[in-house]
Specification:
elongated; 51% strand; five-stranded antiparallel β-sheet; 11 strands; four-stranded antiparallel β-sheet; mainly beta; single chain
């Protein structure tokens, strides 16, 4: 059984930010952590820009609860791994290593690749 765990992010970590803006509620946008501000994080969005200058990536401070809580996985769990602009179905083949990565085995290619938790989700059947 998967469970939720608290996690902290470091500068440079790629995340998905859950919007709380009306009209965008529940949508997620790719961003990078650029700083920690108390219990909050400053993120720079990958595809959102400043209104005053569309050449400047949007930065904003977000609360930790706007970042997805990550799921702990165990050997044998079916997962989707975010890679090469898509989600790929695989199976967890090793417990988390000291760097926080899980190895995922892909039956279709025979490959085993390490992923951080934020690149994994429970398989969407």
């Amino acid at each position: 059984m998967a469970f939720h765990s608290e996690i902290s992010f470091q500068r440079g970590d790629e995340v998905e930010v859950c919007s709380k803006v009306p009209g965008f509620l529940g949508s997620y946008f790719e961003a990078t952590i650029v700083a920690k501000k108390g219990s909050n994080y400053v993120v720079q969005y990958k595809n959102l820009v400043e209104e005053y200058d569309e050449s400047v990536p949007l930065k904003e401070t977000v609360m930790a609860d706007e970042l997805p809580r990550l799921t702990e996985f165990h050997i044998g769990n079916r997962v989707d791994a975010n890679d090469l602009d898509g989600w790929w179905v695989g199976t967890i083949s090793s417990e988390k290593n000291v760097y926080g990565f899980h190895y995922v085995f892909f039956e279709t290619t025979g490959e085993e690749i390490a992923y951080p938790l934020w690149k994994l989700r429970v398989h969407q059947a």
